[in-house]
Specification:
397 residues; alpha+beta; Molybdenum Cofactor Biosythetic Enzyme, Chain A; Molybdopterin biosynthesis moea protein, domain 2; Molybdopterin biosynthesis moeA protein, domain 3; 6-stranded mixed β-sheet; 8 helices
Length: 397
């Protein structure tokens, strides 16, 4: 059996970033930049006032005398005046600082009378002036290729003047569930049937991680039916199957995919849950065959699907992890690398959720982390440091 890290490396090595496409800025949220975005001008493009008040020469305010108000400057209007010695100009936030002025006397510190104004106390040069290029200068690389855009980045791109941007094409991921026991949610399952959940879990993961899920339905445990479903899986960048990956008489994915030209890279990994994982390629499309048990499918999605999608988007596929302390002791681990559902207590220590059966999906929804134990892990005492994967972090962007 292949070690988890080796399986991750072989999956990511087989995938390349998708080509770029150009989209309008209003469609950019969550997309991954394929090209840098540079500033085409300084921001602000000229010195502007940070406050309402009067544009003055700082030296004129030292003596506290009256200054003649020679005009007004508002945001969004050109400046058609100059402040000479002994003069001031009424100015509002965002207004261009007129030539001759080097400071802003805010209105709270000014005494205005008729067409003149004086300072209650002297101001210093540069006071309440946003100098040219305070935020950034022309040529600055505001957003770099490989950045996944959140609302802040979209706003910055707009500030940089980018109406259209180059982004990675979103990976199209086909989702094919297999199994005679599966029915769609909303049906009335018989005692021998269950609601199909894996495709919905994985589709949500695909969408959260920047891809486009393509529902291919449910294939029965019948070679001809499965072959027909696989034949309909066109126009994809990645094909995900769930179920049918193990060694039972009704586990048909390897056999049927092989008849359709599957070039198998590996099958079975030293992992719990998730041992019967398939990875290969049918023509130009990579195939990732996940186990059918809901927890196994979800954990394999986190450990392998996330990295695959990030490779297709040109992002770092590394799965982030951190260290935590055990709230209670753990016995020795098994022969496979384990991903145990666990919760945090009030002090941040973690505790396994109890029985780790791979069919018990509800426990995954209440877990805070996956506790990662290497193969043949030694017993761990209470307070020992362990590696965890934060579920809220990895299930987001």
């Amino acid at each position: 059996m292949l070690e988890v890290a080796a399986a991750q490396a072989r999956i990511t090595a087989a995938l390349r970033p998708l080509p770029a496409e150009t989209v309008p800025l209003q469609s950019a949220l969550g997309r991954v930049l394929a090209a840098d975005i540079l500033a085409v001008r300084d921001q602000p493009p000229a010195a502007v006032s940070a406050m309402d008040g009067y544009a003055v020469r700082a030296g004129d305010t030292v003596a506290g005398g009256w200054l003649e108000v020679v005009g007004e400057v508002a945001a969004g209007r050109p400046v058609d005046l100059e402040v000479e010695p002994g003069q001031a100009a009424r100015i509002f936030t965002g207004g261009l600082v007129p030539p001759g002025a080097d400071a802003i006397l805010i209105q709270e510190d000014a005494v205005a009378e008729g067409g003149r104004v004086r300072a209650k106390e002297a101001v210093t040069p540069g006071l309440f002036v946003r100098e040219r290029a305070l935020d950034y200068g022309a040529g600055w690389v505001g957003l770099r290729a490989g950045q996944r855009l959140d609302p802040r980045h979209v706003g910055l791109a707009a500030s940089l003047g980018a109406a259209w941007i180059e982004v990675r094409r979103r990976p199209r991921v086909g989702l094919l569930a297999t199994g005679n026991e599966l029915v769609l949610p909303g049906s009335s399952p018989a005692p021998h049937q269950i609601s199909s959940s894996n495709s919905f879990t994985l589709a949500a993961m695909v969408e959260a991680w920047g891809g486009v899920p393509v529902d291919l339905g449910i294939a029965a445990d019948d070679p001809a039916h499965l072959a027909a479903r696989l034949a309909a899986a066109t126009g994809l960048d990645l094909l995900l199957t769930t179920g049918g990956a193990s060694v039972g008489d009704h586990d048909l994915v390897r056999q049927v995919a092989g008849e359709r030209g599957l070039e198998l890279d590996f099958w079975k990994i030293r992992m719990r849950p998730g041992k019967p994982l398939i990875f290969g390629r049918i023509g130009e499309v990579a195939l990732l065959g996940l186990p059918g048990n809901p927890v196994s499918a979800a954990v394999c999605g986190i450990v392998f699907l996330r990295g695959a999608l990030r490779c297709l988007l040109g992002l770092d596929p590394t799965l982030p992890s951190s260290s935590a302390r055990l709230a209670e002791a753990l016995p020795a681990g098994g022969e496979r690398q384990e991903y145990m559902r666990a919760v945090r207590d009030g002090q941040g220590a973690i505790r396994a959720t109890g029985r780790q059966d791979s069919s018990m999906f509800a426990a995954l929804t209440t877990a805070d982390v996956l506790l990662v134990r290497p193969p043949r892990d030694q017993p761990r005492e209470q307070g020992a440091a362990v590696t965890v994967i934060d579920l809220a972090a990895v299930l987001g962007a």
